[in-house]
Amino acid sequence: MSDRRYVIPQPPQAALAIAGSSELFPVRRIWCVGRNYEEHIKEMGHDVRDPPFFFSKPADAIVPDGGTSPYPSLTKDMHHEVELVVALKSGGRNIPVAKALDCVWGYGVGIDLTRRDLQIASRDMKRPWEVGKAFDASAPCGPLQPASKTGHPKKGRIALKCNGKVRQDGDLTQMIWNVPEIINKLSEMVALEAGDIILTGTPSGVAATVAGDKLECEVEGVGSLTVTIGQPAK
Ligand code: MN
């Protein structure tokens, strides 16, 4: 139902598919964790003792499984970062670690596409990261599986292949901050709500991806995601 008070048509609700179902998970916000796997922190040249931090992407940056992310403007170095996606059915402020998993509806596989050259330039100029992280079609996400089916995964392979060749190959056990700790920390920064999703950081092996690449991702026991990098949007 459209609300006639809106002076322009209401934008569509961003949503994620549910595996094996025609149902949808409505997405409110996309949060991302920076630097949560030790080997990736080292490959980016940072100290692993630094605490993690959070940034966000717009909800409409989602690209569904089987979709295409057009190669974005302004960059010459877009990277893939495969990540475990956590989808929240409830939220709150200052959620205790012991209660955090009660907020989780389910899990999926996503890619935090990154304009690495612009991210690093903005970092070096002490500017915000949006230009590097929060661009159109920067958040491909596969279908969610309910936690009632998968349980809460604590281990399992997390991997990304580019054109059939393995580029990222890690394990959820390598996460420095686990899912309950991430929810706890993020809920100290903002009030979390149902519909928020969290991309939980990437293992090592991030690399450039170009138009025509086929990216195939999996998180063991959670699901998979295939996305194609397309020609630049006109
Ligand atoms: Mn990331």
Furnish the topology, listing elements before pairings.
Elements: E1 15-17, E2 24-26, E3 30-34, H1 38-43, E4 53-57, E5 62-64, E6 68-70, E7 78-80, E8 82-88, H2 97-100, E9 104-111, E10 114-115, H3 116-124, H4 130-133, E11 139-141, E12 145-146, H5 147-150, E13 157-162, E14 165-171, H6 179-189, E15 197-199, E16 207-208, E17 214-219, E18 223-230
Parallel strand pairs: 3-15, 5-11, 6-18
Antiparallel strand pairs: 1-2, 3-4, 7-10, 7-16, 8-9, 8-15, 9-12, 13-14, 13-17, 17-18
The structure holds manganese (II) ion.
Manganese (II) ion (MN) binds next to loops.
Largest sheet: 6 strands, mixed
Could you say how many structural domains there are in total?
Answer: 1
CATH class: Alpha Beta
CATH superfamily: Fumarylacetoacetase-like, C-terminal domain
Give the tally of β-strands.
18
Low-confidence spans: none
What percent strand? 25-35%
Give me the secondary-structure category.
Answer: alpha+beta
Q: What is the CATH fold-level name?
A: Fumarylacetoacetate hydrolase, domain 2
Strand arrangement across the biggest beta sheet:
4-3-15-8-9-12
Question: Which percent range fits the helix content?
Answer: 10-25%
The end-to-end span amounts to 32 Å
Radius of gyration: 17 Å
Count of alpha and pi helical runs:
6
Shape: globular
CATH architecture: Alpha-Beta Complex
Question: Mean of residue pLDDT?
Answer: 95
Ligands, ions, cofactors: manganese (II) ion
Element order: H for helix, E for strand: EEEHEEEEEHEEHHEEHEEHEEEE
What does the model show?
By secondary structure, this protein is of the alpha+beta class. It has a single domain, classed as Fumarylacetoacetate hydrolase, domain 2. The chain is 16% helix and 34% strand. The protein has helices at 38-43, 97-100, 116-124, 130-133, 147-150, 179-189, and strands at residues 15-17, 24-26, 30-34, 53-57, 62-64, 68-70, 78-80, 82-88, 104-111, 114-115, 139-141, 145-146, 157-162, 165-171, 197-199, 207-208, 214-219, 223-230. A 6-stranded mixed sheet has the order 4-3-15-8-9-12. A 5-stranded mixed sheet has the order 6-18-17-13-14, with no helix packed on it. Strands 10-7-16 form a 3-stranded antiparallel sheet. A hairpin with a 3-residue loop joins strand 17 (214-219) and strand 18 (223-230). The longest helix is centred in the last third of the chain and has 11 residues, at 179-189. The protein is globular and about 40 Å long. The chain starts with 14 loop residues before the first strand and ends with a strand. The protein binds manganese (II) ion. Manganese (II) ion (MN) is lined by residues 32, 81, 83, 112, 201-202.
